[in-house]
UniProtKB/TrEMBL annotation:
InterPro entries: SET-MYND_domain_protein, SET_dom, SET_dom_sf, SMYD4_SET, TPR-like_helical_dom_sf, Znf_MYND. Residues 257-516 form the SET domain. Protein-lysine N-methyltransferase. Monomethylates PRMT5, modulating its transcriptional activity. May also act as a histone methyltransferase. Plays a critical role in cardiac development. Acts as a key epigenetic regulator of gene expression during cardiac development via its dual activities as a methyltransferase and negative regulator of HDAC1. One of its GO terms (molecular function) is N-methyltransferase activity. GO terms for cellular component: cytoplasm; nucleus. The keyword NAD does not apply. It comes from the Eukaryota. The gene is Dana\GF24983. GO terms for biological process: compound eye photoreceptor development; eclosion; methylation; negative regulation of gene expression. Keywords: Metal-binding, Methyltransferase, S-adenosyl-L-methionine, Transferase, Zinc, Zinc-finger. This is Protein-lysine N-methyltransferase SMYD4. PANTHER family: RE32936P, SET AND MYND DOMAIN-CONTAINING PROTEIN 4.
Length: 663
């Protein structure tokens, strides 16, 4: 397929700027107008290195004025804390909690509804409350601690003891002197009771009794209440980190020993089976080098581990991001978030893509500036960036983004206190901007979308949905090439990328992922256009070579392998099973009776697996699909409608063992 530069540019632009909205777009347009075509094509477009490009945008007179002019104005823009708002939400939460206790018998539903509303208000109170003593004019500087305490009471009523205990602990951490109060130990006792830990509940009550001036009446009432507590049934987590089949490959971190890396001139480096891979083998289980949550999920998912939020814990300085636990908050705030915190709304408002967030994160999460530089340079050196197809416009846009991100780092004191407030980069700042430009190039071709599965209350599969919550860069995951029908299924456990074989692979057979265009949904021409534009290659996979039809146009046809030893020829379903067929390749007469019998067995396995899915027996379904698919590839080849559906269903089941959430 011909290279289409206009389409390539549209695709490429999207990887820097996710939306037309946002000031970064205007910034690019202004710079583009100022520099003119001649300079862009004849000078900038001919520069040979990222260092030269970055230096050029800061120093060439054709562009430096608008560049410095805009970057000069970079200032913190973030969601501030608001103690008054927090106190109001807390009062609302307390009132709703009180109202829920007033609901009479038989009004359990209504009470639960009120408690859920109370929890929402308390969550807002937590998110907007400033750190201890940051605003002493309201709540004596204790808004945050009070918000946690209020939320703990609601959680106890909701039967969520563990979360309540964590909030009580946070309330004391943020300044409430609760340890001398009988009420605190009574709350702890109730929390333990809902967790099914009566011994710990009793110890808490005993402590309450021993406190000076303890209210024995209140404690007795509490004991009574606890006696009638029925700990709610806890749904066991279905999330599992699988083990790599045959252990980790010492030469390919995160990958199994059943695969290896090879390289060819036309396909670059890619992963193939080493000895042979069976259906269901786990070939990759890898943490990202860096991963970022998409901004539209900042209110619903943990900024650090991407888990769905229930009782958020806030950053102590901004209200823009939320964490699922104090631990995630601590890890993020002592690392990348301290640099990103005050600039989050500016970054979002710029309209930059998720890939730009990842580029920035590689620096903000590093232990030191030197580590950040080393990681970024290594990634640029090792991952594909397709410098050969990049146009001058594209380089300019990416260089401007690199400059903007470097400016954010300057303003967030990533480089320490600077001698001047001006933008003009120092030598090391230029190195960072250069490395950022390199990252923006490799991320375009190597980042992975991160998914979670949304399941309904009623059923794990019926009505389930795949939700794209973030993106990440995976060191080994980046070496998997594409095919229009992948041979592995990808799912995520948190941010871990797991790839599982969905068919058997012979030694040296490509282990391929899918970059988006699937043959079952998109025709050959569209796929080729997308892959050319987005990933700069022409696909030559079997689905493309043989131009397999879309799933809806696929009939029930199946092609069987010739059964004579070492012959690799595909034969149509025989017209008369009683008769032998002649293979045109090996010229032998063979019987396909056994192959057809196996196909009948395979179809039965697929049906059993589908029934297991209907009964929500995920692991049973996985085993049945694995057995059926493995058997299919012994006797026949794709495309075969039922096997394609079985492979897709296997992916659904595997995703169900990863990160899922209920709405
Ligand atoms: C994520 S990287 C995969 C690793 C890459 N082959 C390398 O050497 O670094 C994506 C790039 O690999 C190449 N690629 C992926 N699948 C391919 C395929 N089926 N045929 C040819 N090139 C492919 C394209 O250049 C694409 O932009």
């Amino acid at each position: 397929m011909e290279f289409d530069p206009t389409y390539y540019n549209i695709c490429s632009t999207r990887t820097v700027q996710s939306e037309k909205r946002g000031f970064f777009n205007e910034f690019c347009v202004d710079v583009r107008e100022a520099c003119g075509d001649k300079w862009l094509q004849n000078y900038f477009g001919k520069l040979k290195s990222n260092a030269a490009r970055v230096l050029s945008i800061f120093s060439d007179r054709e562009v430096c004025d608008p560049v410095l002019g805009v970057l000069e104005h970079v200032q913190p823009v973030f969601k501030q804390k608001d103690a008054l708002f927090s106190a109001q939400r807390r009062a609302q939460a307390d009132k709703l909690l009180l109202m829920s206790s007033g609901e009479g018998a038989g009004a359990e539903e209504g009470s639960r509804e009120l408690l859920q509303q109370a929890l929402l208000a308390a969550n807002l109170a937590v998110m907007r409350a400033p750190d201890r003593d940051a605003d002493p004019s309201i709540d004596d500087g204790l808004s945050l601690a009070l918000a946690y305490r209020s939320r703990a009471s609601i959680l106890i009523r909701l039967g969520e003891g563990e979360a309540a205990l964590s909030d009580l602990k946070l309330a004391t951490n943020f300044g409430l002197d609760l340890k001398g109060s009988g009420d605190y130990y009574c709350k702890m006792a109730k929390a333990y009771a809902t967790m099914g830990e009566p011994a710990k509940a009793e110890i808490s009550l005993k402590i309450a009794e021993k406190l000076p001036g303890s209210d024995s009446g209140h404690i007795a009432l509490c004991r009574q209440e606890i006696a009638s507590v029925k700990p709610p049934k806890k749904e066991p987590s279905t999330e599992q980190v699988p083990k790599l089949t045959h252990g980790e490959n010492p030469e390919l971190s995160g990958a199994s020993k059943v695969v290896k890396l090879v390289e060819t001139k036309d396909k670059g480096r890619f992963v193939v089976a080493s000895e042979g891979v069976k259906t269901g083998d786990v070939v990759l289980c890898e943490e990202p080098v860096a991963a970022c949550l998409i901004p539209s999920f900042f209110g619903t998912n943990c900024h650090h581990c991407f888990k769905r939020l229930h009782t958020p814990v806030s950053c102590l300085h901004c209200s823009g991001v939320a964490f699922c636990s104090a631990q995630c908050m601590g890890e993020a705030c002592s690392s990348y978030h301290r640099f990103e915190c005050e600039f989050m709304d500016l970054l979002i408002g710029s309209g930059m893509s998720i890939l730009c967030f990842i580029a920035l994160r590689i620096f903000t999460q590093a232990n030191s500036l030197e580590d950040g530089l080393a990681t970024a340079n290594l990634l640029f050196e090792h991952l594909c960036s397709h410098e050969e197809v990049r146009q001058a416009d594209d380089y300019l846009q990416r260089s401007l983004m690199a400059g903007f991100l470097m400016r954010i780092l300057q303003k967030s004191l990533y480089f320490g206190r600077r001698k001047t407030e001006g933008v003009n980069p120092t030598a090391v700042e230029l190195q960072v901007a250069t490395a950022l430009l390199g990252l923006l190039q490799v991320l375009q071709y190597n980042a992975h979308q991160i998914y979670q599965t949304q399941v309904t209350e009623e059923h794990r599969f019926d009505g389930s949905n795949t939700v794209y919550v973030g993106a990440g860069l995976y060191g080994t995951g980046s070496y998997f090439n594409h095919e229009c029908w992948p041979s592995v299924a990808g799912h995520f456990v948190g941010k871990k990328l797991v790839l599982t074989a969905t068919k058997p692979h012979r030694p040296n057979e490509v282990v391929a992922v899918n970059y988006g265009p699937l043959f079952i949904k998109m025709n050959l021409k569209e796929r080729q256009r997308t892959l050319r534009g987005r990933y700069s290659f022409s696909c030559n996979c079997m689905a493309c070579q043989e131009n397999w039809p879309l799933l809806q146009k696929l009939d029930k046809q199946v092609r069987f392998w010739c059964t004579s030893a070492n012959c690799v020829y595909l034969l149509k379903f025989p017209k008369d099973l009683a008769k032998d067929v002649r293979c045109p390749r090996c010229r032998k007469n063979i019987s396909l009776k056994e192959s057809v019998a196996k196909l009948i067995k395979i179809e039965e396995l697929y049906r059993e697996a589908a029934r297991a899915m209907q009964d929500q027996k995920t692991h049973e379904a996985i085993e049945l699909f694995k057995e059926g698919i493995e058997m299919f590839f012994q006797v026949a080849a794709l495309p075969h409608k039922d096997t394609l559906v079985a492979q897709q269903s296997l992916l659904k089941c595997l995703s169900d063992t990863g990160t899922t959430f209920k709405k």
